[in-house]
């Protein structure tokens, strides 16, 4: 069932939003300072292509790492997060127009929230 969900997901906006995440990652990787953002964006972009059967969890961090994650998320949200969130929100509205698309709209809404806070997150399989 996860395979079918992921294939339909690619059609209902997952492919375009995954490309958008990877484009943001490529833009971040142009500079040496942006490489940590690029790594996080590639990780979330890969999740955006194939989300069913996996989930996003908070990474356990110490106080110093948590501070850097918060600062990184703030910078990310200002530069890239807002337009990725808008893309996911538009996709969610389009998916919610049909009853079949409601689970996909909910996934887009989860990714819209993640668009602002990609640092400090890990992706793990659901068993």
The main pleated sheet reads as: 2 strands, antiparallel
Average pLDDT, rounded to a whole number, is 87
Termini separation: 14 Å
Over all CA atoms, what is the radius of gyration? 14 Å
Determine the number of helices (DSSP H or I, runs of at least 4 residues).
4
How many beta-strand runs? 2
Describe the strand arrangement of the main beta sheet, using strand numbers. 1-2
Residue runs with pLDDT of under 50 for 5 or more positions? none
Structural class: mainly alpha
Reading the helices and strands in chain order gives HHEHHE
Description:
α1 runs antiparallel to α2, α1 packs across α3 and α3 runs antiparallel to α4. The two termini are 14 Å apart. The chain has one domain. With 127 residues, the chain is mainly α. Helix content is 72%, strand content 8%. The chain has a two-stranded antiparallel sheet.
Keywords:
127 residues, mainly alpha, 4 helices
Give me the secondary-structure topology:
Blueprint: H1 2-28, H2 35-49, E1 54-58, H3 63-96, H4 102-116, E2 121-125
Antiparallel strand pairs: 1-2
Helix pairs in contact: 1-2, 1-3, 3-4
Condensed summary:
With 127 residues, the chain is mainly alpha-helical. The protein is 72% helix and 8% strand. It has one domain (2-125).
